[in-house]
Amino acid sequence: GDYPAAIAAYERVSAQAQSPVEEMFARTALYRLAQTHALDRNPAGAAETWQKFIAAYPKDARHPFALAQFGNALKAQQNYAAALLAYQQYRASVGANDPLAPYVALMLGAGYVEVKEYGAAIQEFKTALASQGLLPTMRLSLLQQLGEAQAAAGDHEAALLTFAAGIAEAKTNTTKASLDVAAARSLLALQRTRAALDRLKRVLANL
Questions:
Q1: Residue 48 has what pLDDT?
Q2: Cα 38 to Cα 190: distance, rounded to the nearest angstrom
Q3: Which residues contact 138 (CB under 8 A, 6 or more apart)?
Q4: CA max distance for the chain
Q5: Which positions of the chain have pLDDT values less than 50?
Q6: Hey, how many other C-beta atoms are within 10 angstroms of the C-beta on 1?
Q7: What CA–CA distances, in Å, run from 76 to 6, 38, 45, 120, 168?
Q8: CB neighbours (10 Å) of residue 22?
Q9: Cβ distance 110 to 141 under 8 Å?
Q10: Phi, psi of 116, rounded to the nearest 5 degrees
Q11: Whole-angstrom Cα distance, residue 163 to residue 154?
């Protein structure tokens, strides 16, 4: 799409709020402006605009979703501490049956990994995995990320069990290979070299 033109249009509308009707349009324009910055791969512009929307319209029904998208924009800039806070604020602002709960737990888990808070990351990945109705691809991604967080925390035995669960559910050789390589690293950390080599041989045989 023509993102620069859309951004210019939303900026014009968002600056005009002389009447209640104009204020309503300006509010929506600011929200759309933040989304357009994100689509235009401008996380800095998106984060700045989300921050304006969040501060200006705390009672807006879209406020929680703005917080989640603010977290995404911050994460894209590798501002993990601020992203974690935004995701936590989103979680606090929605009900227990939030359909985005698994996604937010995944984002929190990934953020905690980046700041090396592996215990918190493991808990978030487990929370996401306990959710009902996960797509198989998301479940496999969560299993791999959980296993890698467990390995980073030094619990390689737990990581091996998690990787084994992922391999049992995986449908493609590519996914199985990724999990086997991760498992081989844990086996090496446990000084189980022969088992690690067997894993890697299996990967090569299935290429």
A1: 96
A2: 43
A3: 102, 106
A4: 74
A5: none
A6: 8
A7: 22, 10, 11, 20, 32
A8: 14
A9: no
A10: 65, 30
A11: 15
Q: Can you tell me the distance from the alpha carbon of 74 to that of 90, in angstroms, rounded to the nearest whole number?
A: 14
Decide if 146 contacts 183 (C-beta within 8 A): no
Residues in the chain: 207
Tokens 């690293």 locate to 185
- In sequence order, what are the residues at sequence separation of 6 or more whose Cβ sits closer than 8 angstroms to the Cβ of residue 195? 187
- pLDDT (tens digit per residue) in 101-159: 999 999 999 999 999 999 999 999 999 999 988 999 999 999 999 999 999 999 999 99
Task: Name the burial class of residue 67, with classes exposed (0-12), middle (13-18) and buried (19+) by CB atoms within 10 angstroms of its CB.
Answer: buried
User: Which DSSP helix (H) or strand (E) runs through 19?
Assistant: none
Residue 26: per-residue pLDDT: 85
